[in-house]
């Protein structure tokens, strides 16, 4: 009776962990999709200032492309883990730092930044467009740190369930394997007990 209750308690704890892992996995993917959308919008806004970008504009576009690549790597890391997870963490940290720096520059030195972009647009309109891009950069800065925290929790739950990488089928494969191990271990322990206690 005691062993049965321990097995049931372990199963309930594993199920609760798997539910949390599934919810974190969904939030992680949602944040990466939001980063994809924000970076794509920033590319559109930057190109709207000047179709063929200047050197400064080129590096700004490159930053947004790297942000998109990091978000795509995050979605891949959520399903494979391993090297993709490490690459995603490094890319996210770097792009978060640069997005934050760009946002500060846009809001503190809008005119100078607009001059470096060599915009074709009228200065007042260009400043509005640039501040929209700066707001999106600040949004991406915040969400990239949220993605880092969620990626850490995904790795933690995967490790806790005995899976070395981040499982893509968060509600299925990894969790079922963990529950099966708990149940199997309980059966093996009960075989050594006297006959009346075997269930």
UniProtKB/TrEMBL annotation:
UniProt entry tagged with the keyword Transmembrane helix: yes
Q: Which residues cross the membrane?
A: 27-47, 59-79, 85-107, 128-154
Enumerate the UniProt keywords alphabetically: Membrane, Transmembrane, Transmembrane helix
Q: What name goes with this protein?
A: Uncharacterized protein
């Amino acid at each position: 009776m005691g062993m049965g209750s321990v097995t049931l308690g372990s199963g309930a704890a594993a199920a609760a962990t798997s539910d949390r892992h599934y919810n974190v996995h969904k939030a992680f993917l949602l944040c990466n999709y939001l980063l994809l959308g924000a970076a794509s919008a920033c590319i559109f806004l930057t190109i709207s200032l000047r179709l063929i970008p200047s050197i400064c504009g080129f590096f700004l576009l490159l930053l947004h492309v790297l942000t998109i690549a990091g978000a795509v790597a995050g979605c891949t890391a959520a399903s494979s883990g391993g090297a993709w997870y490490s690459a995603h963490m490094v890319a996210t940290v770097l792009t978060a730092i640069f997005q934050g720096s760009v946002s500060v520059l846009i809001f503190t030195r809008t005119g100078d930044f607009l001059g470096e972009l060599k915009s074709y647009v009228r200065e007042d309109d260009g400043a509005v467009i640039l501040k929209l891009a700066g707001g999106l950069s600040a949004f991406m800065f915040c969400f990239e740190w949220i993605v880092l925290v969620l990626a850490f929790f995904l790795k933690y739950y995967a490790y806790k369930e005995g899976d070395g990488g981040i499982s893509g089928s968060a509600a299925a494969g990894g969790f079922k394997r963990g529950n099966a191990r708990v149940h199997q271990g309980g059966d093996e322990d009960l075989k050594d007990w006297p006959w009346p206690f075997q269930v």
